[in-house]
Every structure is written in C-alpha cells, then in structure tokens.
Fold this protein.
Amino acid sequence: MRQYSGSQQNFAASISGSPATSAIAAINILLFLGVMVTGGPVTQNLLNWGAKYGPYIADGQYHRLVIPMFLHVGFFHMLTNMFGLIIFGSMVERTFGTRNFVVVYLAAGVAGNAVSFLAGPNPGVGASGAVFGILGAFGVYLLLNRRLLGQMGRQQLTSIGVIVGINVVMGLASTGIDNAAHFGGLIAGGVVALLIAPRERLFSVETPFKFGTPRTALRTATQPGSRALLAILVIAVAVVAITWFESGTYVSNIFGQKIPG
C-alpha cells in the first residue's frame, strides 16, 4: 500500500499547479493596492470598498458578505492571510481540484462573514474566514481517508489541528480579531468537504507480464459535480437563514437607517 506522502513540491511548482489559488491571491493584492491608492485602509474607505458592516447588510447590501474576504486592513494583515492561502490553498486545490477548491473558499468566506454579522455589527474585512475554511476542508479530507493515507496523513491531520488550535487561542487572547468569521469559515469548510472531499481507494497494479505479486496503490476518487452543487446549496441556505434572522433584529431610526435593535 502506498502511503500518502503529502506535498513535497517546491514553491514555484506548487503555485503553477494551483491556478485558482494564484488568481485569488492576485485579486487580494490588487484590491489591497486599490484601497491604498484611494485613501488607505481606514474604516470609511474600507466601507466604500465593501467591508462587512451590520447595518448595511441589514439594509440589503448583501455583497458585503462576499467582498470582505478580498479586503485587508494593512500589509501585514494581507501578508499573513496570503501566506496561509498560498500554502494551504495550493495543497487543497491540488487535492480537491480547482472547481471544488473554489467552492470551499467562497463558501467558507461567505459563511464566515455571515457568522461575523450574526456576532455583531462592527466593520470587518479579511480572508481569514476563507483560509480557516481551507484548513477545515483539508482536515476533513485527512480524517475521512485516515486509514489509507498512512503516517504522513495522520501527521498532517495533527498539524492542522495544532494550527487551528493556536489561532483560536491567539484570537481569544487578542482584540480586533474576528473569531466569529474564523469559526464560521472553519465549520463551513468542513461541511463542504464532507460532501466533496476526494475519497482514496486501493487498487491493484499488475506487474509487467503479470509476473510476481501485484502491488497495491491509492487512487483518488473525485466526487461528482452534483455534490458540489449540493454543498453550495447547503451553505447558501445556512447563510440566508443567518442573514434573515440577524437582519430582523435591526430597526430603522428616524432617518431610515438600520441600527441594531
């Protein structure tokens, strides 16, 4: 039986084999530059670009559940999120396939923003909810295939758990970190992965001229497109329910603006 060896490719090869990861990173960088040249990452400018803000979402600006995953409050904020995206995103994209990776990323990012909206009205931006979703998805893949992936797979699952645990502790111990978005993205990524994560299967490899004992190896069984559509539907229903419920807690002031009730 072949053991899962994990990602041993160099950085350049990793990126070249992950077009969606590269494209998403490029979008984040371009929007960051756009924010910088239009006034910098101050609150009002970020709101102009589409940052998450409870009253605006309650007023029907639902694009603010999507756009914030591509915005950042500073260079270091963007750098840390892009590091996580490129390292883990490229790994998930090569494992899940480009289409399913995009489903994981967007579903986790939107769900993270919805849970953040549920947690409070404050403005928020960042790709960390989507990155946590990537970690959750890869963790579920390793868990589902743990019997066949061998020791390396178990080590990577442990590493994912440690990374998530450290970030949760740091988030709880620090101010200004959107723990709700992290939690929402992590759960959404795991739920999506339950539906679309590849399943590893053993198969026999015949030796030349059928000489000797056939060896066994792993073959990745990808999930059909219908399961990706189901995953999108599940997350969409959850996001709509959360948004509808939280929007109902807002009231209009005398100027017709939405405020928390």
